[in-house]
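Q: I'm writing up a methods section and want to include an example of the input and output format. Could you take the sequence below and give the corresponding predicted structure tokens, formatted cleanly so I can copy it straight into the document?
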Amino acid sequence: MADNGRLKDKVAIITGAASGIGSATAVLFANEGSGLVLADVDEKGLQETAGLITAADATVVIKKTDVANEDEVKALIDFALDTYSQVDIALLAAGPK
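A: Here is the clean output for your methods example:
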């Protein structure tokens, strides 16, 4: 992936990142230089998406999260802040399974 840099020094949380729009957006954001926190209930899918991104030397972490659970969402935000000390973008692409 080429780093176009439009999201350089930005951090994005992306829910629903194991597949579909969430996964595609994660790859796009990585291409633009964003640090990523990927979340989904599908941990295997998260690992696959993260693999696409880490192969391109982008910075990514994953956290299995059920966005229907308020405590898990709070833990996701805390995880993102502990990892990167900032969150600039939230893309909420999680949908019903």
